[in-house]
Amino acid sequence: MFASYLIGLREGLEATLVVSVLVAFLVKSDRKDRLLHVWTGVATAVALSIGFGALLTFTAAQLDFTSQELFEAITSLLAVVFVTWMIFWMRRTARALSGELRDRLGDALRLGSLAVVVMAFLAVAREGLETALLFFASVQGATVNAQPLIGIGLGLLTAVAIGWGLYRSALRINLTRFFTWTGLLLILVAAGIFKYGVHDLQEAGVLPGLNAHAFDISAALPADSWYGALLAGMFNITPQPSVLEAAAWALYLVPTLVLFLRPQRPGQVPSPASSPSAA
Q1: What is the pTM of this model?
Q2: 90, 183 in Cβ contact below 8 A?
Q3: Looking at residue 251, what is its pLDDT?
Q4: How far is CA 88 from CA 81, 132, 225, in A?
Q5: Cβ-based neighbours of 21, under 8 Å, separated by 6 or more
Q6: What is the pLDDT at residue 278?
Q7: How many whole angstroms separate alpha carbon 277 and alpha carbon 24?
């Protein structure tokens, strides 16, 4: 549930920030007549994201065991690619996001109403599709219950509340620090998803070594314990991983953390004057 909450919060806040910047720009520019176009683009993007998530679930349910494992492995690996790109992209551009969006919306306003709809749609659709893919990959192998759905729903609601507070200038948070900490947690989540993708490939017979276990800590971390379920649900840490699973987890986690925590060069850090929190 926590991993799903984190996904909903992180991705939802990015989308909410985008929408709040667009709405604030239109209000301050006395172009409230174009707000309907922004919300039309947002609603279409949300509908597409929900449909994409439903399609992933429906497709997986129609496959036989081997094909389903292979499908889940592919979606897991794609989710890792997208979330890794998103983490580093937001780390690099968080402070400049507001100014960049204002420039794009200004161009769209000059082109016409449809351009505003498309611009809002594209800004939110990317986050929505990433959320659907990452959520689908993160809950593979989890116990079938409503907790992941509740978690992502609470995360999205929290993101909307934070975005509204920022828009109304009731909240001031350090977005760079926020995205740094959530980025670190999401790297751990992505490492677990990558590990599970390797496990699915082994289940499908694509990779060998399913029964070659790297270690067995089931005595200290029982799978049916609350803390075992918590670690498995949050970061896909299991008490008896295969050698390939453990190697995949470490090979993703260590270099990704090193690159993420490496200080940015001075030329990579945009001016604080264009911070999204100033929107």
Answers
A1: 0.67
A2: yes
A3: 95
A4: 11, 19, 35
A5: 97, 98, 101, 102, 276, 279
A6: 38
A7: 12
